[in-house]
Specification:
The complex is a heterodimer of chains A (94) and B (149).
Chain A: E1 2-8, H1 14-28, E2 34-40, E3 51-55, H2 59-62, E4 67-71, H3 77-90
Parallel strand pairs in A: 1-2, 1-3, 3-4
Chain B: H1 2-5, E1 11-15, H2 20-33, H3 39-52, E2 62-65, E3 77-87, E4 97-104, H4 112-122, H5 125-133, H6 137-146
Parallel strand pairs in B: 1-3, 2-4
Antiparallel strand pairs in B: 3-4
Helix pairs in contact in B: 2-3
Classes of the chains: A alpha/beta (94), B alpha/beta (149).
GO molecular function (chain A): protein-N(PI)-phosphohistidine-sugar phosphotransferase activity
Organism (chain A): Acidilutibacter cellobiosedens
Keywords (chain A): Sugar transport, Transferase, Transport
Chain lengths: 94, 149
């Protein structure tokens, strides 16, 4: 089961909102079987996630953990959709 | 529900301020006066800006000001502040800011429903612009009710 983890500094606001949007995009694309959750940065490395998502400001914390998607604007669905689709295609998940 | 948190007395419109710190204080002061958060919470938000940069400017013109429950939150709360003039927070993509939503969570779940409703609002440019240009609380409350279903 592939896992996407959304992170933010506090783990209670922005990461949850992005998680909601990712689930919407996966639904739109008809993709099932991918687990999406959110957390703060300190729990990220132990999560075992395949893809990490966050906003640009935490780029340096996320990049060493694995494949990352960095967002400029967390409420922009188009940016998320484009970047997520690209990443999933690259991993052969769609 | 969003409308249970964003009530009339936590909404302030067309507020004047000189810089981003004063703008954040306007958002937190209301909640501090009501005892929902402590003075330390404002400082924690400033700390976060210092360490993480202006990531709380989550979309064009909008700041979602928050810190962690242990930074001084007494009860789940939210306030809405619009600014008379846009203020720069140092976020090149999303400055200037005209709408500040300040919120305090007490754990990592109770605020999620209200937050997801807030998110739907953030993604609607028309309603965000209406709130920013509103001069009456009733107009703002009408929009908030729309998203509190």
């Amino acid at each position: 089961m592939k896992k996407i983890l959304v992170c933010c500094s506090t783990g209670l606001g922005s990461s949850f909102m992005i998680e909601m949007n990712i689930k919407k995009v996966l639904n739109e694309l008809g993709i099932k079987g991918i687990e999406v959750s959110h957390s703060d940065l300190s729990s990220a490395s132990a999560s075992g996630a395949d893809i990490f998502v966050g906003t640009r400001d935490i780029a340096n914390n996320l990049k060493p953990l694995g494949d990352t998607i960095l967002l400029n604007n967390m409420i922009d669905m188009n940016e998320l959709r484009d970047k997520l689709t690209l990443m999933l295609k690259g991993k052969g998940m769609i | 529900m969003l409308k249970d948190l964003l009530k009339r007395d936590v909404i302030e419109l067309k507020v004047e301020c000189k810089d981003w710190k004063e703008a954040i204080r306007k958002g937190t002061q209301n909640l501090i006066d009501k005892g929902f958060i402590e003075e330390s919470y404002t400082e924690a938000i400033f700390e976060s800006f210092k360490e993480n940069g202006p990531y709380m400017v989550i979309g064009p013109g909008i700041v979602l000001a928050h810190a962690r429950p242990e930074d001084g939150v007494n009860q789940l709360c939210m306030s809405l502040t619009t600014l008379k003039e846009g203020i720069n927070f140092g976020n090149k993509t999303n400055d200037p800011v005209k709408l500040i939503i300040t919120f305090g969570a007490i754990d990592n779940k109770s605020h999620l429903e209200a937050l997801s409703q807030l998110m739907e609002l953030f993604m609607n440019d028309n309603d965000i612009n209406k709130i920013i240009s509103s001069t009456t609380k009733d107009d703002v409350l009408d929009i908030i009710y729309k998203y509190s279903k």
